[in-house]
Design goal:
The structure holds two protein chains of two kinds. Chain A is an alpha/beta fold. Chain A has helices at residues 43-50, 73-78, 96-101, 114-127, 143-156, 173-188, 200-206, 229-237, 295-303, 325-332, 340-343, 351-356, 374-387, 404-417, 434-449, 461-467, 490-497, and strands at 3-14, 17-28, 32-36, 58-63, 66-68, 81-84, 107-108, 111-112, 161-165, 192-197, 209-214, 217-223, 254-264, 270-280, 283-288, 308-315, 318-319, 333-336, 422-426, 453-458, 470-475, 478-484. Chain A has a six-stranded mixed sheet with strand order 6-9-10-3-11-12, sandwiched between helices. A six-stranded mixed sheet of chain A has the order 18-19-20-15-21-22, sandwiched between helices. In chain A, strand 13 (254-264) and strand 14 form a beta hairpin. The longest helix of chain A has 16 residues, at 173-188. Chain A is globular and about 70 Å long. Chain B is mainly α. Chain B has a domain at 58-280. In chain B, 76% of the residues lie in helices and 0% in strands. Classes of the chains: A alpha/beta, B mainly alpha. At the A-B interface, helix 10 of A face helix 8 and helix 9 of B.
């Protein structure tokens, strides 16, 4: 195989931070090359250097043996390099095919030739088994489909080298599988794929070769077949990651009781259908299930962010069915939402403003006449920033400028800082790196140990099995399987998640 | 450099740049820019009376500016300050021409209270409809502007038409309702103290109160604020109502203090000027105070410039518009620069 891309001693600094530190890397034509590392290890920066979004401070980048000096992504695209970003760049009010051809539309004289555009996009989708209706509007599509549109955009522009920046972070299990199939198709068609991830399993599954990055340095490039997951995780984190184990405690009083709860989804179709459950002190109840089976609606209903159609929610013996979010919080409910960026943060607000949210009504931070004790709030925020090692310039920095992992930490720090009786945690591992996951898991278990109730919602079965005392499986808004962790049968749970009763 | 400081700097530099361009334009009238601006400053701040006049000019602008600022700050778009101002002004004037013999202190209080209430109510309506039925408040408030303004025009040409000469106005209101002019040479009246209290309250509310924080979060991410326990709907209506109350107060003071009657042209676009000012400083109340002062100085001084140097006062409008343009350009430029700086290190 021949080399298609070469990084030669490439470095990139942001202020004093060295994001990429003299990286040497060679990528071969037609391979699937994974780059793995924790958040902030420099994976994305390295790829943005290749894609022309940043310029290196030193070092050289070669594409097909020729030194390149891209000043914008356009130059990269001209060299048949395409990148699928973590955040999509699509126009919501346009259809799929309109988005794909935007900027280089087929035209007939001066008219936009829609039929031709449609045909072209459909043909591309078919060639790579991408199932999508090109007439759909973007805002009606799930994240997984939006990603497909992004991929089609690159294919339409004849990309031969495709960069995927943590593409599975936003996808469900099935969507990830479909994406992998597509990626394999690319390989079969002779394209080169660079796959950025921090999920070991995926990297093992898809790659030909794996490069590990930590603290801006490229540690090593290895052939996939010679890799063990344990080895790899050690390399990524720079230390051993222990698998946590949980000990069941004596069950305390019941904290959360949900009785026959029904709630609508955004489209007005019932998403939670007559669900009942309870969680006690010193217990982690794990809710397993494939994303989109009513878990999001359930967590929002518990937190008070979604109206319910019928049923009752009791918290510490009090009926909170009609209580406001604020009252629920004041009663002692903490909530780490599924979508941390969209729900858990205001990216344009400062770290301080984000950390104080939900705490603003506490006596500590509010005085008479609605006065807000900003000095105390600052001290509080600074304390959490230090405690949770949130990397930032100051608490006045916008949260949106932090790295993904640090944004997560802001949410987690804030919710753990509440003195709560119940913690609702949803998808704690989504978009979080190995070290971060360990951190959250430890926090959850510490909560349990101190006698709090934890409701853990996750589509990651391993995580559920590892942390929970009891497990229930949600499918189409109902509980289809329920078991204690001790007697859990992975086979049965897996089938229940897919809606098959054994 | 902190975000706030940077914005402040941009506004100041933009105004200076606009003044430079304005100076060049003065050359067309064969006036040296230094003389021109000297007259402008003297005309606005040269002596006690001129300072009074400038402050009188500042009152409605600062109130409408803050009215817009507070609603925009909370993420609800009150484009209806003009209508709220008109309706409040008219109702207050209608009361002032209809009822006589109320003790002065009480009548003043009553007038201000009614004006604020009318402005607040006229803003509550779109706020409520927005929250309850998700009707677009921008469209609503624009339409309510027309309703309010045409209604008052009708009233001043019909039932409340003046019997004292000129058309398009009500009669002079009862003297018990007058905020007295502090000096006969300027429009500044004791109503300014009401305005000062209102401004102080708003600054407190927006910068020091918890409510101000919650409003800001509502604008930056509604979902996040709901998640954090902010009562979103109530806060949204509240911001709208306070906004309307301020606009109403502006109209009330114009009637009770400046003109002592309602006129059809009582607000020559104060609320639009206020809106531009508020947006220019990103809804920062202190910023609104500073820019409305600068604006008042320019307008006051512009009159003097026309009088003495023969430069049309429209020049001042040109300078103002240029400043707005420079601020807008400045923001995007500085964002680009800071991104690059962050990248280069």
């Amino acid at each position: 195989m021949s080399e298609i891309i070469r990084f030669n001693g490439v470095s990139k600094k942001f202020g004093k931070v060295v994001a990429v530190n003299s990286v040497d890397l060679s990528i071969e034509n037609g391979e699937i090359h994974s780059i793995i590392g924790e958040n902030g290890a420099g994976k994305t920066t390295l790829m943005r250097l290749l894609y022309g979004m940043y310029k290196p401070n030193s070092g050289k980048i070669f594409v097909r043996g020729k030194e390149v000096n891209f000043s914008s992504p356009k130059d990269a695209i001209d060299n048949e390099i395409g990148m699928v970003h973590q955040n999509f760049m699509l126009i919501d009010d346009f259809t799929v095919y309109e988005n794909v051809v935007l900027g280089s539309e087929p035209h007939h004289l001066i008219y936009f030739d829609r039929e031709k555009a449609k045909r072209k996009v459909e043909k591309l989708a078919k060639a790579y088994n991408i199932e999508i209706d090109v007439n759909d509007f973007i805002d009606s599509l799930s994240v997984g489909f939006q990603q497909k549109v992004e991929i089609l955009k690159l294919l339409y522009r004849n990309a031969e080298i495709l960069i995927f920046d943590e593409p599975t972070a936003v996808l469900t299990y099935q969507e990830s599988k479909a994406l992998f199939d597509t990626i394999r198709k690319f390989k079969a068609a002779g394209k080169t794929v660079i796959f950025i991830s921090h999920k070991l399993k995926e990297v093992k599954e898809i790659s030909d070769r794996v490069s590990v990055m930590r603290n801006g340095k490229l540690l090593d490039t290895l052939k996939n077949e010679n890799l063990s997951e344990v080895e790899l995780s050690k390399m990524i984190a720079g230390r051993e990651i222990k698998n946590l184990t949980t000990v069941s405690l004596k069950k305390g009083e019941t904290i959360l009781e949900i009785d026959n709860l029904t709630a609508m989804g955004d489209k007005g179709i019932p998403a939670v259908k007559g669900l009942s459950l309870n969680v006690s002190r010193g217990e982690v109840l794990g809710i397993a299930g494939v994303v989109g089976n009513g878990q999001s609606e359930l967590e929002e209903a518990i937190a008070g962010m979604r109206k319910i159609t019928s049923g009752q929610i009791k918290f510490k013996g009090i009926d909170i069915t009609k209580m406001s979010v604020r009252k629920r919080r004041e009663l002692g409910m903490g909530y780490i939402p599924e979508d941390r960026i969209r729900t858990g943060l205001a990216p344009l607000a400062s770290i301080l403003e984000n950390i104080i949210m939900g705490h603003q009504n506490e006596k500590e931070f509010s005085a008479r006449l609605d006065f807000m004790r900003r000095r105390r709030a600052k001290r509080f925020a600074n304390r959490l920033v230090n405690e949770y090692k949130i990397v930032c310039k100051s608490i006045d920095e916008q949260v949106g400028t932090l790295s993904g992992g640090n944004m997560q930490k802001v949410v987690i720090a804030r919710e753990f800082a509440h003195d709560v009786d119940l913690l609702v945690v949803s998808q704690p591992t989504r978009g979080v790196d190995v070290g971060g996951i360990e951190f959250i898991h430890k926090g959850i278990l510490a909560m349990k140990k101190s006698g709090k109730a934890v409701l853990l919602i996750s589509s990651d079965l391993d995580e559920i099995l590892q942390l929970s005392d009891r497990i229930i499986v949600m499918y189409e808004g109902q509980i289809v399987h329920s078991t204690s962790a001790k007697n859990a049968d992975v086979q049965k749970i897996g089938l229940a998640m897919l809606g098959m009763r054994s | 450099m902190s975000e706030k400081y940077r914005r402040f700097l941009i506004v100041v530099i933009s105004f200076l740049l606009a003044l430079v361009v304005g100076g060049l334009l003065m050359l067309f009238y064969k006036v040296s820019p230094i003389d021109g601006y000297k007259i402008m400053i003297l005309g606005a701040l040269g002596n006690k009376y001129m300072i009074y006049s400038t402050f009188a000019r500042m009152v409605p602008i600062i109130l409408t500016g803050l009215a817009v600022a507070i609603s925009f700050h909370a993420g609800i778009w009150n484009i209806g300050a003009q209508g709220q101002l008109y309706l409040a002004a008219f109702v207050v004037a209608a009361m002032g021409v209809s009822f006589h013999g109320v003790p002065t202190a009480m009548y003043l209080l009553l007038g201000v209270a009614v004006g604020i209430a009318v402005g607040g109510l006229w803003a509550w309506l779109p706020g409520y409809l927005r929250v309850k039925y998700n009707v677009n408040e921008v469209v609503l408030t624009i339409m309510l502007n027309s309703i309010a303004i045409y209604f008052t025009t009708y009233m001043t040409n019909g039932p409340f038409r003046t019997s004292q000469g000129s058309l398009g106005a009500t009669n002079v209101i009862d003297k018990g309702m007058w905020f007295r002019h502090i000096n006969p040479l300027s429009n500044l009246n004791t109503g300014v103290f009401v305005a000062i209290v209102a401004v102080a309250l708003i600054v407190y509310l927006m910068l020091f109160a918890k409510r101000g924080y919650e409003w800001k979060m509502m604008r930056l991410n509604p979902r996040f604020s709901i998640y954090g326990g902010v009562s979103f709907k109530r806060n949204m209506i509240l911001a709208m109502v306070i906004s309307g109350m301020l606009a109403g107060l502006a109209g009330t003071l114009l009637v009770m203090g400046d003109y002592h009657r309602f006129l059809n042209g009582i607000s020559p676009g104060y609320s639009w000027t206020g809106m531009i000012l508020a947006m220019m400083v990103n809804y920062d109340p202190i910023g609104v105070i500073i820019t409305s002062f600068m604006y008042a100085v320019m307008i006051s001084g512009g009159l003097k410039m026309e009088l003495i140097l023969g430069i049309p006062q429209e020049l001042v409008q040109i300078i103002f518009v240029l400043a707005v343009m420079f601020v807008t350009a400045g923001y995007s430029l500085s964002n680009k620069l800071s991104n690059r700086m962050q990248e280069e290190g």
